[in-house]
Amino acid sequence: MAKIAGLDDIVSLCKRRGFIFQSSEIYGGLASCYDYGPLGVELKNNIKKAWWKAVVQMRDDMVGLDCSILMHPLIWKASGHTDKFADLVTECKKCNTRTRVDHLTEHAEQHTKHISIDEAAAKKQDLSDKVCPNCGKVGQFTEPMPFKLMFETQMGANVDDSMTLYLRPETAQGIFANFRNVLDTTRVKIPFGIAQIGKSFRNEVTTKAFIFRTREFEQAEIEFFCKPGTDEEWYEHWKDARFNWYTDLGLKKDNLRFRAHDPDELAHYAKACLDIEYRFPFGSGDWQELEGIANRTDYDLRQHQRGMRTLNNWFEKKGDLSKIDLKDEAQDYESGPLSYFDDQAKKRYIPYVIEPSAGIDRSALAFLVDAYDEEQVRGEKRNLLRFHPALAPVKVGVFPLVKKDGMPEIARNIYNHLKKYFTCFYDHAGAIGRRYRRQDEAGTPFCLTIDGQTNQDNTVTVRDRDSMEQVRVSTDKLLNHLREKLEV
Q: Which tops the pLDDT comparison, 207 or 67?
């Protein structure tokens, strides 16, 4: 039976094997920021490749996009982030630790919701029985205050012509802003989706649990545009498709579940939303969000259409850009530039949107936790990562048994040939058992050993990571053998 990994086990392995390092470690580190090492970057890239293959390459109704991180500030006004993207925070009077108010309540991780800045300012909170998570003091908190989550920056060479911009808190808005560009330059017809992988940034009040919640993170998001009235059907489709993606790549079904959002925790744009949760080895109740799937209705396209018209009015009046009010002027938005003309129905409408939004970093953590195992082999502890072959950072390890009798030369030739097709690792240092153990801990599915018999019959030993079984395979059949096992 696989060992249930603790977070300390994962953090230790990631540092020891070069998966993930603390950012700026030589300067004492930077809180909630992490660097992916040689194995970690391969794992992360493989997760992104698997996601892209499943949602873009293997589908006929999806195209890709890669949008700029910096965008016009009115995009965030139209989306609601400028006015609504805030957390309510309080400060402990004893230790000066700032904490989100909802994190002071029971099971807060299960019911988090961003609120508007006006709501935050008006909301009265009774904190008299709440406990500081840092020092344990009860009821000693300042008056709650809104905390903006978007990072601000300035664009412009001089103070007079500078503009306040934001590091994007999500990748979705770049997709909505390019909806018309995609329609005009491709042959897509509704229903269709636009997929994107990219960095996002949130100035979180509290971060937690290694790479689970950080201020800089990578998202894999889909905006799937569909005809109003078919949105609930597509919502169910993406709910099942995304759940199956995780299990197809090895996550145990027992460690996954759906959790529908209660009405009072729905985001301002959502008709419905649910989370795919994973049983992480930390937090209250262990179940934590892995991916969200939301029915965003036509909110975003309508808002951006409104923003475009408001900006045109601003150009005429040249007012203060920061004070633009995106009020509904009762215009016919169905006929605007972000609407869609349905050739079959002979009707124009603004599409509804289903959004599956996954965190690449959270996915990496879930795959690490689920793959981690410890077992006793001949009285010795063996640590290993039972990654699905598609995710394994290294697919094949290549070892000469000893550094003589031509074995290193043969091993090098095999390594140079195979690395054209998979990520391989060559290792000739130490006892063969130790080399196996190092690759087990890195999650490498197969190891090849070139030994004395190789010179006699051109066969090599192929060792399986999970079962540790070994078979002899002819060098001329090696590539096909590995391709079949690795499913590539």
A: 67
